[in-house]
Write a sequence for this structure.
């Protein structure tokens, strides 16, 4: 690369860095991201030079990607913001799915109401987990394993209770059984496109919530707890209450994704919604994208899910995609522990565009 | 933690305790004895499966998600060598164990060692990634078809109580492994160094122990133990590339029950899960015993997070 | 102004067998600056933690501002108006300095989701007050250690507490910044905030404290103005260590040194000191001491993160016992760890017998012959005594040598013979120390670095600790010893370094330290 | 107007070279788009209008069809893949044999091509893979073994208006909960098969003079096992059989305790409902405990209809009575297909695999009868068709309005000399029951 291009790119980087320091930067970036997402389904059809995005990326895949972006964003509030690493978010996901489907199947209660009931149930279950774990001061691995156990517990309970559908679970009823027909009110559509916009709207809501939290007093308290719980208590933050709030909010929103899942995929079973892998799929985009950031979970999901999909589609040998996926996980954790959101900065560092890292004041202090 | 006598464990297992603990209408004496035998055999295998996991956890504070996958790798190594040579699979078990030691060292070198100081979730994700890589590679190399060792094992029995030979061999391997590991940890300088590192990581530096090297050794041994457990399981049942999952989740439970890092704890935890499973399957409908297992798990986590035989809380 | 704002009565807190606070009754007047001093391990930090709800007291009560707050959660106590800082500055690292301040829980300021203008203004005021607005948008992990201390103070000020407990607010802070902190403290105090502070730096205390309480062994020794307290011989004892004769000055102590150091082996009635015979047998197995220093550190600079602790110090081991003294936070321990290779040196060089070992880790140094005893002894609690000793000989490959060393170590510490099968954690404090020494002997090192072997031991055992150190010397080793108990340590010291603020204040023969007041001044950094 | 004709290079017939197919499909996409632009009337509603990238679609200028594509959607990896890969192979074999015989006659010997994708047994991939197969030019779909996956996949077929003939998926709900216009199931559902089993199995035993009054159920504790269990709970008492013990097994589990509890209950018959592994474990444990009930039976049991598995289980399996869908032993073709299958893929055919083959035969018959590669035509044909030329042990396949096969049948087998032999109904029987 010639030094000229280097320096001009470096200028771009510095502009970008300046921009990132502005308070409107994140909302603007989010606006751009959501703008793209709104027109993305239409972009799938555009064909350029014989290659259209649609041959590789389907609407269904985008929906699944958004589902995981959404859950990761929800998970992030508890684990990324507050530092309480949950390995059992499938519990909340599953409760959302079951709350919705049970009510609509057995009592013809509108799934939107069912979703909220499921979400409240999930929040309550989250509170139960939180009260028990925080009361007994479980941290680190122990907390993660406990959340996993609470999720597995639900799976086996439902698996063994016939009234809850047992292992066969539920199939979602037809829209005419509880509403006028397919449509927004019924939470059922005859094509994928409305589903896409529903989950996009969900993502917009949870992202807004996450963004507001990120920039609010409440969020600062959560971060303080994550950084140093004792110090947080010492400056008066009611840590127990705030940790519980974070769990409840996170669980509440995660349940929506379960409800969406149930209405989109028609059937739910303990095996599918409480699956061990769901726990991983929920948290992975946040880690890959950047723990504790608002943009990270969305970017992460758009890397993790489509990449594994594209690998699956383009590698002839079944199973190779999982190897690629596994390698990706390992490489990202090893080489980019701060996630995708840190890539611009890392690139800049790599190419030597960064300002001298030494800070005048820090130097001043240490040399004194 | 590792030092407590293993013999003490077996005294926990007197039939009387178990029979009263179950507290449900008792079946014929033979049936009860038969169930006890099964519980013991299953518990032994579970204990063996948990050994490697607990070792890596105790010394390195790493939860190894790839543990199940390492077990599966060992199964296929033994199976391939045995099918290729026509010899009994038993002779290849030691080879698989050694091979897995090497695999463990490699995994540690490339994935764990660089991030030993990073937050715990990183190690969890990395080992999860390793698991995917291993399982899918095995799937591609060997197809998903179930396999079994080509040996014919019957059962021995007396007075209406049967002991399947496969289970018996597995238990013998399990006990041998525990004793062997115990001797290694108790009687050799290297073994002591591992226990010392687990006990007081910073203290270990001051007697000249290179704890980085101990980490390598530990991960290698953990993988080797996974390999041993893996190589023994086909004596009991058929296997396919996915069988590791089932044992992995149970192993998590066992390790926490017994106390992270505790060898006797792993055996005790294995026995508890073995008993809950066998008696739960017998007396409770469907898979309700699984609910029991996770309830016990949560209770222990809350009330005694250091585990039943765990010394300290990390 | 004379109301009592904070009052504890008979506050007790123990950890296992260790009684950290043994019935402390203390009252703090509203508006005063109350300093708590006392040697390491005297229970000061535990006292803070117990008052502020981080520990549950075993018994006793805490009243604050007319209200019983015993057993409250720590965050509630903070909101009630009793703030505290931590000894090790604990900023919210991923947040900016400003966010650190805004993260303080202030119910009264603003409401709802938004951070109120008032709160932002308040944060700006505090940034101004502490003269750190220029770093407001830096992440807290990127600022210097001193700035972190300022932030720690600023953060608690956001809470506008009536009373603030400060745990060593100036530890590791350069003098210029220290003055700034003191200036701020005075200003805030004048505005009506009560301060209780733990502090080791006597200049700080003389500068600011209205009243001083002295802790020792979990109890209050005395109370009074700075002058009163420092004049009190009990305080000197608490700091410099008990002397057999309470009226004896340092000079008296030192006059004993000559006689004693040559004949330690024969001293009367040491609890477990072996007879000389074993010692001479061993001497032949160990390299004969050279006259020059084996372990030499030159211009060592080191610290943690961006916190510089040691600012260019040269030390070396010498024949006999080399003592490093200095108040808490002066960097003694860090220096020793740096010599052992535990904390890598940022700059400077380390050599062992002329060989450059600057880049070595501790395990490599042990192999060469430099062994460290960490402050807590670093023993393996879940391993038996025998196993601890065997691991001490981890670097030994020859079983015969191992056996020989084991005999030597057991001859040196025969009390361990009966305990060989017991777990390390089952031993008493003194026995654990013994084990730690014996285990160190097993390494066969000829330079030992001892980090306060007497810390946390009953006074009666302190002598034993020194006895053990001299035993190592008898076996041909050079010993570097960190010690709080200056008086006692001077008895056995052959060479002395005194540190303060990470810099060397004094080095030389202990006999030159005849004037106790000089020593106190040097030591306390007045 | 048929816009769904294919413009494939006839040389692209190797089903495994999917990558080259995609490349070609992508190129064809430009032409397709151009076609759309010039032809406003392109409103057949098969999804081309919304641009789902059906690259194989070309303007309607070309009426000749060289290839008709079957999209096969099965678990090729994951814990269902042992059976899934074989089912996929069975579909391929059916196409291969058809092509060897000269292809689709009514389309001038057009080739049948199978494109396969891996759904990993995951629900979210069911629809994903179905969509990809449609995008890659599938004219008709089949799959998916796991019922939730099939459920998801059939919705895509319905939306895209591509006919979907279920290879194997036993869950009643797939067709019975929602009316679907494009989905067909040749095999009997779980309910149907369990009822047949509860009725016929005890009858056969009683005819041989064996008392069958009590039963013990052994099932895999997932959806499939539980739904068969639930039906048997109703149907067995109706046929004079009392259930005296129920015991379940999990994925990857062993069956020792279960056998002890069955032994303790001592029923006249043990009915096993599991995948291969569960029954292998059951029989191994029985062997180990030297226990054998008067009658061993299986309902929708995969192992007892798999000669490979039977050989591995050994002697103890002999005499077992199993109800399942299966292949028609009275046809020579059946034996040829079995032989060819093991030749081509070095695998054995169990009931699921055989049924998949038969489903593929139904698809091919529909294409032949439709004389068209157009999904709409094939679908219309499926509604009316009566497929007699298949190797399943069933009368001619013909679909009800809900898509279920009117003549779906679970037959009763008995394991004799470690081979599964049909003993009832009579029209397919190849052997007499022996006890």
């Amino acid at each position: 690369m010639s030094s000229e291009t280097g320096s001009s790119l470096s200028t771009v980087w510095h502009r970008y860095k300046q921009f990132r320091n502005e308070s409107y930067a994140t909302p603007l970036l989010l606006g751009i991201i959501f703008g793209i997402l709104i027109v993305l389904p239409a972009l799938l059809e555009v064909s350029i030079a014989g290659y259209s995005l649609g041959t590789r990326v389907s609407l269904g895949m985008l929906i699944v990607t958004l589902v995981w972006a959404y859950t990761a964003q929800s998970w992030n509030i508890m684990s990324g913001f507050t530092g309480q690493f949950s390995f059992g978010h499938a519990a909340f996901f599953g409760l959302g799915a079951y709350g919705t489907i049970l009510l609509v199947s057995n009592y013809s209660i509108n799934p939107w109401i069912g979703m909220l009931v499921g979400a409240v149930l999930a929040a309550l279950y989250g509170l139960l987990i939180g009260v028990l774990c925080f009361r007994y001061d479980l941290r680190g691995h122990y907390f993660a394993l406990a959340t996993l156990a609470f999720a597995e517990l639900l799976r086996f309970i439902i698996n063994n209770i016939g009234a809850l559908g047992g292992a066969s679970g539920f199939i979602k009823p037809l829209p005419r059984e509880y509403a006028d027909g397919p449509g927004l009110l019924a939470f059922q559509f005859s094509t994928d496109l409305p589903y896409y916009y529903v989950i996009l709207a969900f993502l917009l809501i949870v992202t807004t919530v996450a963004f507001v939290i990120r920039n609010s007093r409440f969020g600062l308290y959560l971060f303080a707890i994550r950084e140093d719980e004792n110090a947080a208590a010492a400056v008066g933050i009611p840590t127990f209450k705030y940790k519980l709030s974070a769990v409840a909010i996170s669980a509440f929103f995660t349940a929506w994704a379960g409800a969406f899942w149930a209405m989109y995929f028609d059937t739910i079973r303990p095996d599918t919604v409480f699956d061990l892998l769901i726990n991983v799929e929920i948290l992975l985009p946040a880690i890959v994208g950047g723990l504790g950031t608002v943009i990270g979970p969305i970017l992460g999901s758009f890397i993790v899910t489509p990449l594994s999909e594209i690998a699956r589609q383009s590698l002839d040998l079944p199973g190779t995609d999982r190897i690629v996926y596994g390698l990706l996980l390992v490489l990202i954790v090893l080489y980019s522990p701060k996630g995708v959101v840190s890539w611009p900065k890392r690139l800049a560092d790599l190419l030597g565009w960064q300002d001298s890292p030494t800070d005048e004041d820090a130097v001043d202090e240490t040399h004194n | 933690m590792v030092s407590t006598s293993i013999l003490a464990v077996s005294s926990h297992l007197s039939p009387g305790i178990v029979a009263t603990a179950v507290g449900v209408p008792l079946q014929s004496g033979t049936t009860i004895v038969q169930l006890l035998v099964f519980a013991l055999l299953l518990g032994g295998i579970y204990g063996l499966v948990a050994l490697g996991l607990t070792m890596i956890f105790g010394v390195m504070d790493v939860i190894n998600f790839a543990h199940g996958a390492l077990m599966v790798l060992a199964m296929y190594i033994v199976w391939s060598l045995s099918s290729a040579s026509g010899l009994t699979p038993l002779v290849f078990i030691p080879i698989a164990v050694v091979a897995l030691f090497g695999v463990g060292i490699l995994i540690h070198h490339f994935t764990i060692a660089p991030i030993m100081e990073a937050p715990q979730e990183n190690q969890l994700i990395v080992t999860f990634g390793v698991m995917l890589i291993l399982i899918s590679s095995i799937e591609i190399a060997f197809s998903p078809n179930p396999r079994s060792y080509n040996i014919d094992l019957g059962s021995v029995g007396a007075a209406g109580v049967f002991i399947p030979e496969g289970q018996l061999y597995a238990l013998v391997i399990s006990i041998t492994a525990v004793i062997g590991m115990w001797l290694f940890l108790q009687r050799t300088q290297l073994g002591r160094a591992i226990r010392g590192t687990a006990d007081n990581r910073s203290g270990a530096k001051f007697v000249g122990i290179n704890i980085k090297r101990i980490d390598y050794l530990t991960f290698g041994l953990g993988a080797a133990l996974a390999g041993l457990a893996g190589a023994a399981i086909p004596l009991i049942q058929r296997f396919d590339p996915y069988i590791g999952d089932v044992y992995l989740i149970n192993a998590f439970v066992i390790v926490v029950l017994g106390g992270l890092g505790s060898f006797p704890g792993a055996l005790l935890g294995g026995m508890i899960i073995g008993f809950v499973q066998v008696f739960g399957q017998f007396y409770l409908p469907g898979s309700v015993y699984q609910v029991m297992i996770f309830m016990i798990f949560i209770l222990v986590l809350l009330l005694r997070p250091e585990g039943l035989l765990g010394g300290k809380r990390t | 102004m004379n109301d009592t704002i904070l009052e504890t009565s008979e506050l007790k807190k123990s950890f296992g067998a260790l009684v950290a606070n043994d019935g402390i009754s203390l009252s703090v007047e509203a508006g005063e600056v109350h300093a708590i001093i006392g040697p390491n391990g005297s229970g000061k930090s535990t006292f803070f933690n117990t008052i502020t709800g981080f520990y549950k007291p075993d018994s006793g009560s805490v009243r604050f501002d007319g209200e019983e707050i015993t057993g409250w959660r720590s965050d509630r106590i903070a909101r009630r108006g009793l703030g505290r800082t931590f000894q090790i500055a604990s900023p919210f690292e991923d947040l900016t300095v400003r966010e650190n301040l805004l993260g303080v829980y202030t119910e009264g300021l603003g409401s709802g989701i938004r951070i109120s203008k008032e709160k932002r203004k308040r944060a700006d005021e505090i940034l101004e007050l502490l003269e750190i607005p220029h770093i407001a948008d830096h992440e807290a992990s990127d600022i210097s250690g001193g700035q972190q201390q300022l932030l720690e103070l600023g953060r608690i000020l956001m809470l506008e507490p009536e009373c603030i407990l400060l745990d060593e607010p100036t530890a590791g802070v350069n003098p210029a910044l220290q003055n700034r902190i003191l200036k701020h403290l005075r200003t805030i105090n004048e505005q009506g905030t009560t301060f209780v502070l733990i502090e080791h730096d006597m200049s700080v205390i003389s500068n600011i404290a209205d009243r001083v309480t002295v802790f020792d062994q979990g109890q209050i020794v005395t109370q009074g103005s700075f002058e009163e307290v420092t004049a009190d011989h009990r305080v000197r004892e608490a700091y410099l260590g008990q002397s057999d004769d309470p009226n004896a000055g340092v000079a008296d102590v030192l006059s004993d040194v000559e006689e004693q150091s040559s004949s330690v082996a024969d001293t009367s009635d040491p609890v477990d000191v072996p007879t000389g015979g074993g010692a001479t047998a061993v001497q032949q197995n160990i390299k004969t001491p050279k006259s020059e220093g084996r372990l030499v550190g030159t211009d060592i600079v080191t610290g943690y993160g961006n916190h510089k602790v040691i600012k260019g110090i040269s030390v070396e081991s010498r024949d006999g016992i080399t003592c490093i003294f200095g108040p808490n936070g002066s960097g003694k321990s860090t220096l020793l760890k740096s010599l052992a290779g535990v904390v890598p040196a940022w700059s400077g060089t380390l050599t062992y017998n002329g060989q450059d070992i600057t880049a070595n880790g501790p395990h490599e140094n042990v192999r060469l012959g430099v062994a460290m005893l960490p402050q807590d002894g670093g023993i393996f609690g879940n391993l038996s005594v025998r196993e601890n000793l065997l691991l001490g000989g981890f670097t030994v490959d020859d079983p015969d040598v191992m056996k020989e060393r084991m005999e030597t170590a057991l001859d040196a510490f025969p009390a361990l013979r009966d305990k060989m099968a017991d777990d390390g954690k089952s031993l008493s404090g003194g026995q654990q120390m013994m084990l730690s020494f014996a285990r160190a002997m097993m390494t066969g090192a000829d330079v030992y670095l001892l980090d306060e072997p007497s810390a946390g031991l009953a006074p009666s055992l302190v002598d034993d600790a020194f006895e053990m150190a001299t035993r190592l010397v008898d076996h041909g080793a050079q010993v570097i010893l960190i010690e709080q108990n200056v008086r006692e340590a001077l008895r056995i010291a052959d060479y002395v370094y005194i540190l303060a603020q990470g810099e060397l204040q004094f080095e030389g023969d202990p006999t030159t330290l005849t004037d106790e007041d000089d020593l106190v001044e040097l030591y306390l950094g007045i | 107007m048929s816009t769904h004709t294919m413009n494939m290079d006839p040389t692209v017939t190797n089903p495994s070279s999917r990558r080259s197919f995609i490349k070609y499909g992508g190129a064809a996409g430009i032409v397709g788009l151009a076609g759309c632009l010039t032809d406003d009337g392109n409103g057949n509603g098969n999804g081309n209008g919304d641009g789902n990238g059906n690259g194989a679609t070309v303007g309607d200028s070309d009426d000749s069809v060289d290839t008709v594509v079957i999209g096969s959607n099965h678990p090729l990896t994951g814990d269902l893949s042992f059976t899934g890969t074989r089912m996929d192979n069975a579909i391929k074999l059916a196409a291969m044999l058809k092509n060897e015989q000269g292809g689709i006659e009514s389309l001038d010997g057009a080739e049948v091509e199978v494109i396969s994708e891996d759904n990993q047994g995951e629900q979210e991939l069911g629809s994903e893979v179905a969509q990809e197969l449609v995008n890659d030019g599938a004219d008709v779909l089949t799959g998916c073994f796991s019922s939730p996956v099939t459920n998801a996949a059939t919705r895509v077929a319905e939306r895209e208006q591509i006919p979907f003939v279920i290879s194997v998926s036993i869950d009643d709900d797939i067709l019975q909960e929602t009316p679907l216009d494009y989905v067909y199931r040749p095999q009997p559902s779980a309910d149907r098969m369990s009822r047949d089993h509860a009725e016929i199995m005890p009858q056969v035993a009683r005819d041989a003079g064996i008392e069958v009054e009590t039963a013990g159920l052994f099932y895999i504790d997932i959806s499939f096992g539980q739904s068969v269990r639930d039906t048997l709970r109703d149907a067995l008492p109706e046929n004079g059989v009392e259930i005296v013990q129920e015991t379940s097994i999990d994925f990857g589990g062993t069956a020792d305790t279960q056998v002890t509890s069955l032994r303790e209950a001592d029923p006249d018959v043990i009915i096993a409902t599991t995948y291969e592994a569960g029954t292998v474990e059951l029989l191994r444990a029985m062997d180990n405990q030297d226990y054998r009930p008067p009658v061993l039976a299986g309902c929708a049991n995969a192992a007892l209809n798999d000669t490979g598995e039977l050989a591995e289980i050994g002697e103890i399996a002999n005499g077992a009575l199993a109800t399942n869908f299966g292949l028609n032993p009275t046809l020579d073709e059946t034996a040829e297909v079995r032989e060819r299958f093991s030749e081509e893929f070095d695998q054995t055919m169990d009931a699921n695999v055989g049924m998949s083959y038969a489903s593929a035969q139904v698809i091919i018959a529909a294409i032949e009868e439709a004389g068209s590669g157009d999904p709409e035509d094939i679908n219309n044909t499926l509604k009316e068709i009566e497929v007699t030329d298949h190797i399943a042990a069933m009368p001619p396949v013909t679909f009800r309005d809900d898509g279920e096969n009117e003549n779906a049948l679970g037959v009763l087998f008995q394991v004799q000399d470690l081979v599964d032999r049909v003993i009832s109904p009579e029209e397919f029987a190849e052997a007499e029951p022996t006890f």
Q: What stands out?
A: The first strand of chain B starts at residue 155 and ends at 158.
